[in-house]
Amino acid sequence: MEKNAKKLLEKYIAGNCTPEEMAVIENWYLQLPFEKDAPHHSLIEASKQEVWNRLSPRGKSVKMLTIKWVAIAASLILCLSVGLYFVMLRYAPPRTVKTELKNILPGGNKAVLTLADGTVVDLDDAKNGQIANQSGIVIRKAKNGQLEYIIKETPNAAVTGSNTIATPRGGQYQVNLPDGTKVWLNAATTLKYPYAFAKNERLVELIGEAYFEVSKDRIRPFRVKTGTQTVEVLGTHFNINAYKDEAVVKTTLLEGAVTVSSRSGSVNLHPGEQSILNATSTGLSLNDQVDIDKEMAWKNNVFSFDNDNLQSIMRQISRWYDVDVVYQGKITSEKYVGEIPRNSNLAEVFKILELNHVHIDAKGKVITVTGN
């Protein structure tokens, strides 16, 4: 058993694990017991210090979140002794996980739809099947958190009206628009769109974060308006992060081509590039070294951090777990690197963060973060 565990962790470190093996290791860590006969805290700290002394030269201000850190630590400790290796993997410093955190579950498929006539439909409560018929366009709730628009009759050109779908904090949803475009909405996101697109354009408005797979139509460009920015495409795949509490609006292109415009000008994006709009200066910049996996992690049900500060991490947690965050004392300026599954309950997430010297307390749905 010990030999097999060692072999599996070595595969994880080398990046050769299958998705199933990776899930086994990460779930293994999250479910580790904290037994009474655990090694003395000083032994663990001494071993941990040796690991940190050998980490890659990112500088002392960068900390690995625990799942990734455990993999690196394991490979280094193997050089010391197999016994110490398993001590480090199995045990961690004692910590208290508040009962309230265990009861705060991750988000799920939740959204509210507002029709053109003002009717509000809570999609959580609505049954699968037809919800409404607007001028020959049927709105249907499908399984697995999807909303579909199906054209049964060609609407009159004079018909106008908008629908709005909004996910709350702790919600996500997918909507398939009348033109075949698919949109995935992250938590705390609002998308406004006509239930029948015009003949010359397809215009939608976004607040929050969404991933678009736009149906090709050379006659009608698809435009996404986010505050002072407009993204124009003919048919492509891209992600927009436009939360009001973030300092920048990020548009990331995965496939095709897009033009991003603001008051200060415009940029053309190619696959693997990202535009960044500063919320205060309205200036557009281009990032051609974007980490696509990080930007799309939310859609793949993962939190992914790469040199992110604590406040940035907590904003994401606040949206997905529907909690408020307050800070006390001096908050660390250190950066964090790593991944956390978004299907973890909040106790598991903070179990990881607390190993990186962050103290978490909870009262109801208010999370207090205290610096050292």
TrEMBL record:
<dbReference type="InterPro" id="IPR012373">
    <property type="entry name" value="Ferrdict_sens_TM"/>
</dbReference>
<dbReference type="Pfam" id="PF16344">
    <property type="entry name" value="FecR_C"/>
</dbReference>
<protein>
    <recommendedName>
        <fullName>FecR family protein</fullName>
    </recommendedName>
</protein>
<keyword id="KW-0472">Membrane</keyword>
<keyword id="KW-1133">Transmembrane helix</keyword>
<dbReference type="Pfam" id="PF04773">
    <property type="entry name" value="FecR"/>
</dbReference>
<keyword id="KW-0812">Transmembrane</keyword>
<dbReference type="InterPro" id="IPR006860">
    <property type="entry name" value="FecR"/>
</dbReference>
<dbReference type="InterPro" id="IPR032508">
    <property type="entry name" value="FecR_C"/>
</dbReference>
<feature type="domain" description="Protein FecR C-terminal">
    <location>
        <begin position="303"/>
        <end position="369"/>
    </location>
</feature>
<feature type="transmembrane region" description="Helical">
    <location>
        <begin position="67"/>
        <end position="88"/>
    </location>
</feature>
<dbReference type="GO" id="GO:0016989">
    <property type="term" value="F:sigma factor antagonist activity"/>
</dbReference>
<feature type="domain" description="FecR protein">
    <location>
        <begin position="164"/>
        <end position="258"/>
    </location>
</feature>
